[in-house]
Structure formats: structure tokens, C-alpha cells
Design goal:
By secondary structure, the chain is an all-alpha fold. It has one domain (2-220). 83% of the residues lie in helices and 0% in strands. The protein is built from nine helices and no strands. The chain has helices at 2-17, 20-40, 44-64, 72-77, 79-84, 90-119, 127-151, 158-185, 191-220. Helix 1 (2-17) crosses helix 6 (90-119), helix 3 packs antiparallel against helix 8 (158-185) and helix 7 (127-151) runs antiparallel to helix 8 (158-185). It is elongated and about 55 Å long.
Length: 221
């Protein structure tokens, strides 16, 4: 466990050292959300109705930005071989990367979602449901993104293939996450949507690191 937590700390330190990637993801989130009122108009009713989907789409796209470097930099400089020889299973290595990605990208997106929702005139009753859905939803996005980044590692045009692989898998997260906020806005129960997001997290938590670990072994061999 000490090696596992040490790897998470290493990833966080490297991200802080190259903080431009994380800052770019948050900046992209704000700028992309700010473009929607310019395209669909500033009417509060229209913005409030579309706000959950806007926040989720922008969060999904912003979470994809740092994934290209998740394993790529370690693969290029040979650090990935050393990490695989450290005694940690490849699946544990992938899980540590996913946790670090969520702490560096998913958690700031979660914190930034509330002011963006207010900017988009989302009903006050829907904002807690939006944040409650983003909590497991961003974790699922980190797990799916980690598996996708490992699968395309070493492939030509991997940066192009990665969104094509992850976006279809993330569509259910987008649907149920936005659905939870919509249900809260109309006074309906958000429990089914949140339970489905939690079920997806429970499924991805063991499966995505295993898939990513197998892909990492194949990439270094």
C-alpha cells in the first residue's frame, strides 16, 4: 500500500510541476460553457433547461484533455518500465493513475461546476443533484479514460483514437448525470439516476484497472 500511495503522490507532484495541463482543463470547462449562451441566446428559461446537459458535456470533454499524457510521458522516457518493475501489479498502477487523474482533474471540475451552473441560470434545486451526480460520474470518467489511454498507448494517432474510444463508453454517465439534475429541477426523485451512476462506478472500479493493466503489459512487450 505504501508503494500504491507513493505512486499517487508522485503523479500529483508531477501534475503540480506541469500545472498547465490541469489549468487548461478547467479553463476549457469555463470557456466551453460560456460559449453556449452566445449560441442559444441569454434567455434564462432556455439556459436553465439546457444547463445540466451543458455542464456534463463540458466536464466530459475537459476530463479528456489530460488523458493523452497519463501514460504517454512515462512510456516515452522509460519510466513506465520502471513502474511495472516496482512490485505493483499493472492493474494497481492503472488504478493509482486513475485516482490521481480524478484528484487533479475530476475534483477541480466538480468544484467548478457550481459557479458554471449558476452562470447558466440552472434552478437552485437542481444544483445539489448536479454535484451529487458529478461526484461518481467524474470518477467513472477517470476510470474509463485511464483504460482508454492504456489501450491506445503506443498506437499511431493515439490522441485521435482516445476520444473515439472513451466518448461512446461515457454516454450512459452523461445521460444519467444530466437526468438527475433534470429530475430535481422538475421536483422528481433523483435516486434512480444516482443509483445507476453508483452502479456504473462499482462496475468500472474493478474492470477498468484490469483492462488498463492488461493493455500496459501489451504496450511494453
Amino acid at each position: 500500500m505504501s508503494r500504491f500511495f507513493g505512486l499517487i503522490g508522485r503523479e500529483i507532484r508531477l501534475s503540480l510541476r506541469h500545472g498547465g495541463d490541469s489549468f487548461a482543463a478547467i479553463l476549457f470547462f469555463f470557456l466551453a460553457a460560456a460559449l453556449f449562451p452566445l449560441a442559444i441566446g441569454p434567455a434564462p428559461e432556455t439556459l436553465g433547461r439546457l444547463a445540466p446537459g451543458i455542464v456534463w458535456v463540458c466536464a466530459l470533454l475537459a476530463a479528456l484533455l489530460p488523458l493523452d499524457r497519463l501514460f504517454g510521458s512515462d512510456f516515452d522516457d522509460g519510466s513506465l518500465d520502471q513502474l511495472l518493475l516496482s512490485g505493483l501489479p499493472p492493474s494497481a498502477l492503472a488504478l493509482a493513475k486513475a485516482i490521481a487523474h480524478w484528484l487533479i482533474t475530476g475534483l477541480p471540475l466538480l468544484l467548478a461546476a457550481a459557479p458554471v451552473a449558476v452562470m447558466l441560470r440552472m434552478p437552485d434545486a437542481a444544483i445539489p443533484a448536479l454535484l451529487a451526480g458529478l461526484l461518481p460520474g467524474t470518477a467513472v470518467l477517470s476510470l474509463l479514460g485511464t483504460a482508454g489511454a492504456a489501450i491506445v498507448l503506443g498506437a499511431r494517432r493515439g490522441g485521435v483514437l482516445l476520444p473515439l474510444l472513451v466518448l461512446p463508453l461515457a454516454a450512459p454517465v452523461l445521460i444519467f448525470g444530466a437526468g438527475a439534475a433534470d429530475a430535481a429541477a422538475f421536483g422528481l426523485s433523483v435516486r434512480p439516476h444516482l443509483l445507476l451512476l453508483a452502479a456504473m462506478l462499482a462496475a468500472c472500479l474493478p474492470l477498468c484497472p484490469l483492462a488498463a493493466g492488461a493493455a500496459l503489459r501489451g504496450a511494453v512487450e
